Amino acid sequence: MSFSRPSLWQLAAAYATARRPPFSLRRSTLESCDVSAHRTGCPECGGALGYVRPRRQDASGGTAIVLLHGSPGSWRAWAPYLADRNLVASLSLLAFDRPGYGSSASCSCSRSVATQGACISAALDEIVPDAALVVMGHSFGGPVALEVARRLHDRVRACVLLAPSLDPSHERALWFQRLAAATLIRTLVPADIRSCNEEILMLREGLQAQAGILANLAVPIHCLHGAMDDLVPVENTDYLAQMATRARLDIEIISGADHYIPWSHRDRVVDLLRQLAKH
Ligand SMILES: [Zn+2]
User: What is the pTM of this model?
Assistant: First the structure.
């Protein structure tokens, strides 16, 4: 494969194929999200960490459901949940733009799993200091959720992992990701693609570092993974079962499902969140 003279269009197309959902959220779904946007300071770099929460809900007590999107992404990934009036009426949702994305683009911290988890944990201490937490992450958001659970284990009731990247042996940088990290091209690609690239290049090392954490984590972990996931292989669940020996583990493999279970199996996910918030 030749790396000479790739066009930005080719780069964008490669990302679109590899990382983006195969459909876009309907504009009406986004418009139905009655949310307010907030920012809090990143204690590490002084940049901003942005998040949204539905208006007219109070997560200062009770259980807050923390939503962490995949790579690339933004809080908008959770629009079908935030637009669900029944859900919003009964559960306190809080959806972040992870560091490097959207309203958190000014956070200049490392894009490693560990640092992202540290940034979000510090933000949660500011935003919902008293709430019990259920932390849910999709794809790259999965290992970040685990890092949050490690740091805030006293108040994390459960972690929900949807098609998470966990096993470092399944991670490899794709050719166009290494290419996009080159200095010249880096300045030309949009910020969210740049952040996506940076964090994916650091993922394997981050997951290796997380192996010891997984072994010591004692919070309940619920993992849903599609049997037909061709982006993050379902074998990641074997790794989870092997490594998370202290956690109360509940793994559900969904036959016929691909990588996009937050949207294709939303009812199942909502049932799980309701159940976890009750206990
Ligand atoms: Zn930062």
Answer: 0.86
